[in-house]
């Protein structure tokens, strides 16, 4: 029997379309709008890639308000990293097992919140997960199959996914400060104007963590698609400036779009399974400013 390929970073629409209906495939729709948190799920109910389950950023990919993990949520920003028990239970409801090939998409170039799903699974040790290159918009533009109307039931749920998060990949604010003090690299994925503090449409304070560098997540894309691995590798090598990729910690506003950098690094071959790897500042900017005593920098 011919072994099916494993997709672990981005997957092109044409190749993915050929895999629809594969027994091991789980498709996840992660469309989400910050200004209207219910819009993504509404859009999924109307039309989706065939067989796609829906992952809600607030409900499924972040710590739930009713989880009781208040001590965990403090300092974790607007989208706290979810409790492992809740997330693995949700994976089981979607039918995800260690043998599954997961493909996830959104309509924001992977940044809200497909890359978040990707890194959540990677942090559990699940490597067979990929983001659909170009996402929903590119899929529509290519006139590829869609499913309309009431979604079919997800099917028989499995047991909760048998894994736990690798905490070494997840940093809080004190750990980030220690990382910077030791000469590590902190890369902020927000738009340049938010990084500088010129505008701040979401959080109560504008600016950035002192010592952080800015690389907007959009720099990983061209015309809505991922840049080639060699190009991404050259760009991140310049940013690393002689450091190992393991020295990079990614952040953004709330730990969501930062995952796009971690995905891009893996696509470039700079984040290898079994290596320590680049890490995530889970609370990111919204978590950093929860303590008014922490320093804030503005400008370039």
Automatic annotation (TrEMBL):
Statement: the UniProt record of this protein carries the keyword Transferase: yes
Under SUPFAM superfamilies, the record lists: Rhodanese/Cell cycle control phosphatase (SSF52821)
Location of the Rhodanese domain: 21-148, 180-297
Tell me the superkingdom of the source. Answer: Bacteria
SMART domains, alphabetized: RHOD
Key words, A-Z: Repeat, Transferase
PROSITE patterns (UniProt xref): RHODANESE_3
Cross-referenced CDD domains:
TST_Repeat_1, TST_Repeat_2
Q: PANTHER family from the entry?
A: SULFURTRANSFERASE, THIOSULFATE SULFERTANSFERASE
Protein's name according to its UniProt entry: Sulfurtransferase
């Amino acid at each position: 029997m011919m072994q099916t390929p494993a997709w672990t970073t981005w997957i092109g629409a044409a190749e993915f379309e050929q895999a629809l209906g594969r027994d091991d495939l789980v498709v996840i729709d992660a469309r989400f709008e910050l200004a209207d948190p219910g819009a993504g799920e509404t859009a999924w109910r109307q039309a989706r890639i065939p067989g796609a389950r829906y992952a809600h950023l607030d409900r499924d990919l972040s710590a739930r308000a009713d989880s009781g993990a208040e001590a965990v949520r403090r300092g974790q920003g607007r989208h706290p990293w979810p409790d492992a028990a809740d997330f693995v239970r949700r994976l089981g409801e979607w039918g995800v097992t260690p043998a599954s090939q997961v493909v996830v998409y959104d309509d924001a170039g992977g940044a809200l919140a497909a890359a978040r799903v990707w890194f959540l699974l990677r942090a559990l040790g699940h490597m067979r997960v990929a983001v659909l290159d170009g996402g929903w918009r590119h899929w529509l533009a290519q006139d590829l199959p869609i499913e309309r109307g009431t979604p079919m039931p997800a099917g028989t749920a499995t047991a909760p996914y048998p894994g736990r998060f690798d905490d070494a990949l997840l940093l809080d604010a004190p750990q980030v400060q220690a990382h910077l003090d030791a000469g590590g690299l902190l890369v902020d994925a927000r738009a340049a104007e938010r990084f500088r503090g010129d505008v701040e449409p979401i959080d109560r304070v504008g600016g950035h963590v002192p010592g952080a560098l800015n690389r907007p997540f959009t720099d990983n894309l061209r015309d809505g698609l991922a840049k080639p691995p060699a190009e991404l590798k050259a760009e991140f090598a310049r940013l690393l400036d002689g450091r190992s990729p393991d020295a990079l910690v990614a952040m953004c506003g709330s730990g969501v779009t930062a995952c796009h950098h971690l995905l891009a690094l893996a696509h470039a071959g700079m984040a290898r399974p079994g290596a320590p790897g680049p890490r995530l500042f889970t609370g990111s900017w919204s978590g950093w400013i929860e303590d008014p005593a922490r320093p804030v920098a503005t400008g370039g």
